[in-house]
Amino acid sequence: MMKIYHVEGMTCQHCVHAVKEAVEALPDVQEANVDLKTGTLKITGSVNENELKKAIEEEGYTLS
């Protein structure tokens, strides 16, 4: 299953890499694709939304 989220606060490719690494470290996430231009995060697999929000916030960004 694919889900799409919006991540606020990303400004560069380092941000993209940080979000991608944090999300792909979560259990049951098969793949994460981050688009800096649109601020979108596409996740393939299943994800606990509370864990996702926490992982994004620990990197310094906001999930909306």
UniProtKB/TrEMBL annotation:
Keywords in alphabetical order: Metal-binding
Top-level taxon of the source organism: Bacteria
Domain HMA: residue ranges: 1-64
Pfam families, alphabetized: HMA
A GO MF term: metal ion binding
Stored InterPro entries: Heavy-metal-associated_CS, HMA_dom, HMA_dom_sf
PROSITE patterns referenced in this protein's UniProt entry, alphabetically: HMA_1, HMA_2
Name assigned to this protein: Heavy metal transporter
Lineage: Bacteria, Pseudomonadati, Pseudomonadota, Alphaproteobacteria, Acetobacterales
